[in-house]
Amino acid sequence: MPILNTLQRKENAHSEGVWTAQYSGQNRLITGGQDEVVKLWEEQADSTLGYPHSYDGHTLGVVSVAVEPMGEIAASSALDSVIRVSLSVFLCAQLLL
Known about the structure:
Number of helices: 1
Oligomer: single chain
Number of strands: 7
Radius of gyration: 14 Å
Strand order of the largest sheet: 1-2-3-4
Helix content: under 10%
Structural class: mainly beta
Distance between the termini: 48 Å
Strand content: 35-45%
């Protein structure tokens, strides 16, 4: 008997392998992968995952991502020895309103 059911599935989420993912609990997901990109996904009105924003800047594959429970601050680390901490675009949009 399976413990988990698949709620969402996204083919070709990154151009190369996905190495890390974390769910924020606010219908947001952050992923990183071999393609050196961090993507911030959000559940769309039709219950599919869409990524309104991606972050370039690492020069080697992203191996770890983290997002705080409200989804406002995200961090990533990569094989390029860089750690990036960012305000999420969702918080930035709220601050501009």
